[in-house]
Design goal:
Helix content: under 10%
Largest sheet: 5 strands, antiparallel
Order of helices and strands: EEEEEEE
Number of strands: 7
Structural class: mainly beta
Shape: elongated
Number of helices: 0
Strand order of the largest sheet: 1-4-5-6-7
Oligomer: single chain
């Protein structure tokens, strides 16, 4: 029963790993993450107030055209809990904080 899973796999002699295509992701690929709001935010469309610590499913991407002393800057996209308008938060390493965009 110990060999039931088969630890070794058979590769035929004509098998070439270089012929297998790899999935290449773009440089600024957006990833889906679970995000907790670091600062209180207010939606500019409906006026809904979202307090600090509210959890969201959000998308994150690295801002490719901006850096600060070699520190990477990230942009987070999330939706308002009331009207589903998209809000954006960008990290601000110059002031050790965040910038909120509507």
């Amino acid at each position: 029963m110990t060999e039931r899973k088969g630890l070794n796999q058979y590769y035929p002699a004509e098998f070439d790993r270089k012929k297998i295509s790899r999935l290449l992701k773009p440089k600024n690929h957006q990833k889906k993450i679970r995000f907790m709001l670091p600062v209180p935010a207010r939606c500019r469309k409906c006026g809904n107030y979202m307090s600090e610590g509210t959890k969201f499913n959000s998308r994150v991407e690295q801002v490719t055209e901006e850096t600060y002393l070699g520190i990477e800057i990230y942009r987070f996209y999330f939706k308002c809990t009331n009207c589903s308008a998209e809000l954006t938060i960008k990290t601000d390493p110059t002031n050790c904080g965040y910038l909120l965009f509507a």
